[in-house]
Write a structure and sequence with these properties.
The chain has helices at residues 3-24, 29-42, 54-60, 71-83, 93-106, 112-118, 121-142. The protein is mainly alpha-helical and 144 residues long.
């Protein structure tokens, strides 16, 4: 899968990722946006310039929002979704690519197999192909 093709899938999958966080998170939109930003800061997944409001969170989950979602928000949503007892999974290939990309950005792994082993059991199969593509993409970027 060419680099541009993979990253385009990631960008297309980000709104669905944020949308899942909105649907499965407990609380109103403003509270979920605050939780996302505070978790990003505490877990060192990014430094939001400002804490978004609920309306911004809604905007980020719109299908055409792929170019406005900050990476810290996607990384943090992945971090939170992976830990949820509801055991959410990506809904399609684009979302799987977004989850896999963020998974690799959130933690350091020696190889793709280690990244896959670290996934919760319920995500290993849904993310298998996307994780391999994300690893290949990540390794390709190191050569630049």
């Amino acid at each position: 899968m060419p680099h541009g093709g993979f990253y385009a899938k990631v960008r297309r999958g980000l709104p669905g990722l944020i949308g899942q966080w909105r649907r499965l998170g407990q609380g109103d939109e403003d509270r979920l946006a605050l939780l996302l930003a505070e978790t990003a800061r505490v877990a060192k997944l990014g430094e939001p310039e400002a804490t978004p409001d609920g309306e911004t969170l809604v905007d980020w989950s719109a299908p055409d929002a792929s170019d406005i979602i900050p990476l810290w928000a996607a990384r943090t949503a992945t971090f939170l979704l992976v830990q949820m007892p509801a055991r959410p999974v990506p809904h399609n290939d684009d979302e799987a690519c977004a989850w896999a990309y963020c998974w690799l950005r959130n933690r350091a792994f020696d190889d793709c197999a280690a990244a896959e082993r670290a996934l919760p059991d319920h995500l290993r199969e849904p993310l298998a192909a996307a994780l391999k593509a994300a690893w290949t993409d990540r390794q390709g970027l190191r050569l630049v």
